[in-house]
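Q: What residues go here?
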């Protein structure tokens, strides 16, 4: 089992101010690195009413400058929203700042019509734009000259990670699995069933059998000594997060909601969802020990604009009362205090 963090930086009006949220994300990641966390995942969307992070590369740069070991996973980059050459250059510099092997990317095709309109990309052409961008990234990181949209291009300097940061394709439908297998990429879907389908597709292209599916659990984790008190504080943020994702998913008919966020009728529905862990240290330890070796125990500390102080209380209680009893998690690496 590994430990991870996720940030998307939503900041609804009833939540914490946006500035303290970004500062907390950087400091929490540095703190998490010192406590054996292996990865931080940073997400991207554009034009969201609640300020969902539109520029995870900038946040990743701040985190890379504050840390030295934790892996930074851009999960996901909405690829058609970017100029592929400019993105290739930015990712090279981020790879250099972070150091070899620390940066990875989940490339998403996108699904919100509003975002495609915002960047002048035809929604019906998104698959072609997406695959063109993937090929451009590969070519750019070779350091050699190539042609992109009829223009001569060369991206320098070259990445410090050989071949550039690894790219996995994201997705929540079978076409994304087929594309990843056909193009020779790794795959990070929203369900293990889609990953199993990807493995089957890989055999059709004589690809080496991929490794096991990396499941991230739970949908939300908060550790507290007073579950009822903190539930009342957290529930509005979970409702905002999950119901907004459900609304976005509904914009594309036939598409399942993104990950665990299927929407809730009310706060009481959150209590019944096994993916929502608002638990005591003892219960957290019990559930964590049930996770498999290929699973990630993931915190989303600032979900829906949660108060950073409340998020810190959960992380610090986890470190003091849960982490020392998880035998398969590496020990504290350094003493990086909370800022």
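A:
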């Amino acid at each position: 089992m590994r430990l991870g963090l996720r940030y998307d930086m939503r900041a609804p009006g009833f939540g914490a101010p946006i500035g303290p949220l970004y500062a907390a994300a950087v400091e929490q990641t540095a703190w998490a690195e010192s406590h054996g966390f292996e990865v931080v995942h940073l997400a991207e969307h554009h034009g969201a009413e609640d300020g969902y992070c539109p520029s995870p590369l900038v946040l990743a740069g701040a985190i890379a400058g504050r840390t030295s070991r934790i892996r930074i996973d851009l999960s996901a980059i909405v690829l058609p929203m970017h100029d592929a050459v400019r993105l290739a250059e930015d990712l090279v510099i981020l790879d250099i700042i972070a150091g070899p092997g620390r940066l990875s990317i989940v490339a998403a095709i996108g699904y919100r019509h509003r975002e495609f309109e915002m960047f002048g990309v035809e929604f019906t052409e998104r698959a072609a734009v997406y695959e063109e961008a993937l090929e451009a990234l590969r070519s750019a990181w070779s350091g050699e000259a190539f042609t992109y949209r009829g223009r001569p291009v060369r991206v320098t300097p070259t990445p410090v990670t050989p071949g550039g940061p690894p790219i996995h394709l994201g997705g929540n439908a079978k076409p994304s699995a087929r594309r990843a297998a056909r193009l020779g990429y790794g795959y990070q879907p929203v369900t293990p069933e889609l990953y199993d389908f990807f493995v089957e597709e890989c055999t059709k292209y004589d690809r080496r059998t991929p490794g096991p599916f990396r499941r991230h659990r739970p949908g939300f984790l908060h550790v507290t000594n007073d579950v009822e008190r903190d539930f009342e504080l957290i529930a509005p943020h979970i409702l905002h997060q999950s119901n907004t994702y459900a609304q976005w998913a509904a914009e594309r008919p036939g598409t399942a909601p993104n990950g665990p966020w299927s929407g809730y009728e009310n706060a009481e529905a959150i209590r019944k969802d096994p993916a929502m862990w608002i638990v005591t240290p003892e219960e957290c330890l019990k559930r964590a020990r049930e996770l498999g070796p290929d699973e990630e125990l993931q915190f989303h500390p600032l979900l829906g604009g949660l108060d950073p102080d409340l998020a810190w209380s959960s992380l610090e209680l986890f470190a003091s009362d849960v982490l020392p009893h998880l035998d398969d998690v590496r020990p504290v690496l350094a003493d990086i205090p909370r800022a």
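A: Context that may help when evaluating the design: Confidence is low (pLDDT under 50) at residues 330-339. The chain is about 40% helix and 15% strand.
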